[in-house]
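Pasting two entries for a bug report.
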Amino acid sequence: MVQNRMLLDEETSKTHTFAAPGYSVEQDEEVPADMVAEESGPGAQNSPYQLRRKSLLPKRTACPTKNNMEGASTSTTENFGHRAKRARVSGKSQDLPAAPAEQYLQEKLPDEVVLKIFSYLLEQDLCRAACVCKRFSELANDPILWKRLYMEVFEYTRPMMHPEPGKFYQINPEEYEHPNPWKDSFQQLYYDTIEDALGGVQEAHFDGLIFVHSGIYTDEWIYIESPITMIGAAPGKVADKVIIENTRDSTFVFMEGSEDAYVGYMTIRFNPDDKSAQHHNAHHCLEITVNCSPVIDHCIIRSTCTVGSAVCVSGQGACPTIKHCNISDCENVGLYITDHAQGIYEDNEISNNALAGIWVKNHGNPIIRRNHIHHGRDVGVFTFDHGMGYFESCNIHRNRIAGFEVKAYANPTVVRCEIHHGQTGGIYVHEKGRGQFIENKIYANNFAGVWITSNSDPTIRGNAIFNGNQGGVYIFGDGRGLIEGNDIYGNALAGIQIRTNSCPIVRHNKIHDGQHGGIYVHEKGQGVIEENEVYSNTLAGVWVTTGSTPVLRRNRIHSGKQVGVYFYDNGHGVLEDNDIYNHMYSGVQIRTGSNPKIRRNKIWGGQNGGILVYNSGLGFIEDNEIFDNAMAGVWIKTDSNPTLRRNKIHDGRDGGICIFNGGRGLLEENDIFRNAQAGVLISTNSHPVLRKNRIFDGFAAGIEITNHATATLEGNQIFNNRFGGLFLASGVNVTMKDNKIMNNQDAIEKAVSRGQCLYKISSYTSYPMHDFYRCHTCNTTDRNAICVNCIKKCHQGHDVEFIRHDRFFCDCGAGTLSNPCTLAGEPTHDTDTLYDSAPPIESNTLQHN
């Protein structure tokens, strides 16, 4: 049953509040509670009368027209075959000879008993009873029966008359010209179909309220062009029991004039027999067109058509409010907003749709808040072709493709959403997509949390991007974007990956505790990476490789489990004004043709060296401060050839600069001071150029050159170093010009002249350069060395051999020989002499790629 009721200011019944969402049900004393049937079970939804039925009646299969209420003819159920699912009234009457029992009922049963029986019938049952015979017609038209029914349905205490469109008034029953004003009002307000109710409302141009009872309403043409209110009315879960479906065309269409219309608490289905597009033109369960703004509330919306969408909002001025709806299990798109449409979409459940849960296209610009978008068989939200929208506090998860996809100039704003557990990525921005993604939680996606590619330029700001099964943010294929203020951590691959000519701005992020590296720039990647904090990652804090040229500026890169910044395989770029500290390996490594510009950085606290340049690495290393590293401040080795200018390399726990294994390089105008080992150590066939450097206040030698290395020394100042200024091993030839070697402490020469063991001034942590010997009497090996004073004193008379002038510490003084040293005092036990500083640990990052 469909009811249409005007909301007027006249007095209405306060004891019979109609059962609809937001209304309570109160029983009149005249209707005993035990006469009201409760609706339950799978067949209950097929009985629209159950809201107010006084006793359980058999299921009905058809309903009469308005004329049946007048008792003028028998039921014509054939005219209402499309309503057969709404089993509301008795079956068809049959023209059979009257049996004695029937004759008794019709002719001899007292009126009081017949009226008592009729009091258990509803309005359409009474109309059918009136068709039986003249006596039943008179009794079934009793005003008392109709008054009770009327007040239960419409709540009015006086009949509301609706004689013509746009005209409503209440009457006093005593003054009405006909005997039964209650039944006459029923005829004027009562509609058998939703179409009829809508027609009565829309033709009259008033704001109508239509209650739709339990049942399945099939293939009605529901085009809404006025601000009507249509509410499902059923006990329990109302929307499960009021079902409106169409098999041929869109189930609901809201057209211009339907602003402020309301539809709520019902199931709306589009269920075509042919699921494809071959036999119908419209493919939407619910359409909202231009210049209308209805409210769709607490509805279940389903579509089994494989094209179109469950809900389509299109056109300028289309601005619905859709809230608390369930748009799920559709074989197409769930919610489609296009062609400049807007609207507010809040607290909806959108799941398990074959295509996107939400499409926004062609300047559509909705506001979508607190929706639950999940388990889609495609993408969760898809904005494309200039689609926009404001998405806030949505929970988007477990979709088969990306949680949120942006394509082709789309520009959505996504704020405080959770995008997680996607079967591919979290957010995918491509083909010149844009968008603002602000303060979201993006986590536990199978691929990258955010993908940006093909000239797209989104803003990714203030998000938490974490625990992804691959990377955090992946920018490739000429991607751009502003990546700012995010917390990126715990991802299986790099926190941010930039490749293939991409050029984002990455700033003010925290990138930490990754299972891989922090930032990975490769395959000609670019970008400005500034003021980030990159720390505690398993591999390198930043990788730059394969022709990439990023600018890294004012970052804090620290506490990594391998290298701080790693340039390899022709990685280039600029590294300036950064703090790089406390790494397990070197602060910076440069190798295999890489040629970065490294300037004005502070590189300190490394458990290995400060900067390691090796395997044909290059680079311009200028104006940096390199200090407090556990090993050399700068290592140059294996055919590398960097340029170091105006750096301050100091307070290292090993040497200042160590060049060996064919290393070269230009060292110019550097200050190298207060290092535990040699200010500059040159070894093993290396040939650097040192020009205008100051090497001073070292705790060992100023410059040491050994192992067939050569060097060019021009205009350097070497002073106040403990062991001495310049030390050259046997067989070393250098080119020297205009150097000043002055005021060094010359502790080695002083110890030799005093007859002291050199171990006394070096222990096993330093390697003074002087003449060293072996003692065949004491069975020393080629790994042992003995200073000249121990040869004279401790090994006097032994078979000794001069080896060369080089770096060593005295094994006699260290107590490692069988003959005790008489010069060094209490011996300390140690291993064999090492002639060079311990080599740096090279990154094995490539083994993890």
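Entry 2 (this is the one that rendered wrong in the viewer):
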Amino acid sequence: MSRRRHSDESDAGSQPHKRRRTSEPIEIEDRLESLICRVGEKSTSSLESNLEGLAGVLEADLPNYKSKILRILCAVARILPEKLTVYTTLVGLLNARNYNFGGEFVEAMIRQLKETLKSNLYSEALYLVRFLSDLVNCHVIAAPSMVAMFENFVSVTQEEDIPQVRSDWYVYAVLSSLPWVGKELYEKKDVEMDRLLNQIEGYLKRRQKTHVPMLQVWTAEKPHPQEEYLDCLWAQVQKLKKDRWQERHILRPYIAFDSVLCEALQHNLPPFTPPAHSDDAVYPMPHVVFRMFDYTDAPEGPVMPGSHSVERFVIEENLHCIIKSHWRERKTCAAQLLSYPGKNKIPLNYHIVEVIFGELFQLPGPPHIDVMYTALLIELCKLQPGSLPQVLAQATEMMYMRLDTMNTTCIDRLINWFSHHLSNFQFRWSWDDWADCLTQDIEKPKPKFVKEVLEKCMRLSYHQRIVDIVPPSFTALIPANPVCSYKYGDEADSSLPGLAMTTTVGNAIKNRASNEEILIVLKDVPNPNQDDDDDEGDGFNPLKIEVFLQTLLHLAAKSFSHSFSALAKFHEVLKTLTDSDEGKLHILRVLYEFWRNHPQMISVLVDKLIRTQIVDCAAVANWIFSPEMAHDFTRFYVWEILHSTIRKMNKHVQKIQKELDEAKVKLEKQQNKKQRDSGDEEDMEKNSEDEEGQLEEQIERLQEKVESAQSEQKNLFLVIFQRFIMLLTEHLVRCETSGIDINTTWYKNCIERLQQIFLMHHVIIQQYMGTLENLLFTAELDHHILTVYQQFCALHL
């Protein structure tokens, strides 16, 4: 990595001399970026010699490319946190050679920190704080000024009328930097550091933790406590302090350059005041530290660090950083995880599996799309076929054993992951090991989990394949053959209402009748809700819907595509039949009755009915909570439908809101242009006024649409929460009257589904908290239900 080689490479190529000279700066800039980004990766030379060589290259290029080098170094500090100490050492070497550059870099980092905090980029800001703190070890920043900055951070806990999550972030930023810099700061400023830690301890003792139960993956504290993240980190820092700040895991390349770095002049950080709290600030939500393994689970090889050792924090933090940096490229991400520095000193596979599941099960939602974790684990199994699949199987077995206390939302994600994973490995699994679930009630977590996994596997395969892969003893848990249930079939009772009409309707559909012709045919269907002597009415006729929809779905039952085409072709008929709220509810009942053995078909057709506006979102919510659906209420697919419905409603509101915002911006630009061109001709002014008028009308229309959509959205959440409260209250009263324990399997599922709604849609629900509090979650409500709402409110306090 010598300067000579760098220059030689940039001169390579046979382009004409003039062309090369114009592109040379760009080539050199690209090469600088490549050299900086790739330092610390696998190389035949040692890391120290690579760093020294790169520092020489950059020093020589500073006169011409200083701003570019500053920009790249600031960027890698923010986006490649797993190589933190590599880059702090590089900056240290550059500072030792060029003091002014060191000063400019520190100033640039402080500017960047202020920008990231103002832009709500808190995870990036965290990496920048950690980077600055490690520069103390490299003799770039003076220890007293770093302590002063930490004191300013901790002073945020004394601010009034601010959310707890703001104070949490600043305390976490300080505590999470101490594994890197605690020793150095304590040696230089022990009194100040003791005072700082005492302030933090006081804050941690008084902060409220109502939110914790809502965020725990397991409700049981055994075998591993599920600790709140700040409490866990505080315990780790306390142990580190007790061990005299000695940790044995962070790679510290600057130690090799100590003789050079200790001669360098240090910079003082400029006084840093945390930006004031603003209402539009979005602080990171609290989380619970996921624990699945300890040293007893990895009996062979290196010992796993204890849950309160700081090494556990550092390893997990670095693995999270690798996933954050490379999650879009599963192959690169898997390779980077497996080539983790110091992997021979730790049971790396266990750490990787625990961190991946920790992210997948994170509440309210994982940091990345769920399917990424499946793809990453498959890639890891391919790269380490001799060891990683065994650890993954062990983890799956452990999670299966702990299903009774596992959060329902996390069980959903486990079902999705496990079924998808099995589909990539010929659905091979030692099912007999789970035979204990066969003797339990079908609604208990273990048999329910196996049943839902097999149902998901069937979506990724076909029914007979599932029958073939599981032992005969598991027959009771195999999903039903996904065939339709046509009530007007050959075996139908001749006295069944509407039976005679189905032939007429079926022939009309086969003969390609128009929507109008079908509606004329359906006029002959009697209305069971009306007496014979009533005047003919166009009100809700359930039999009409049953006859038409059962016949239509039966004729189109061959595939998803056939069903989609049928619904699209007779959209007008369906809209007419579902004119009332009862009609919308009944069409969903008929759809469920017809496809009761095919949950996937129900899901996609309900989705289609919402998209084509045949039914609305509130109707779907009312249908899910209706008595007819009680039998399937705890099934996974029902909640997939409900969450999909809520997401559609939210996207609809966002889309109209975006259109409104764009129209307002356009009008503002138009008005500004008019002011600038005020001295121009009258014609232009008239045209401008016409355009403004049109835009104002458009904004008015969009404003009405937004208000209407938001009202619909609020109503959807009110319907859902009201139904939850009714169901749960009935259960609690029934249990109290009969003197039975309220904590049934159904109750756990229902209360955790209520939590799930709050967590998965927390950003939207926050807007309507006032309404919810006034109308539904009042002080008179049973405390079991009210606690869930209070936990939700505490997430953002």
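Dev reply: Rendering is fixed now. As a check, the viewer should reflect this: DSSP finds 35 helices and no strands in the chain.
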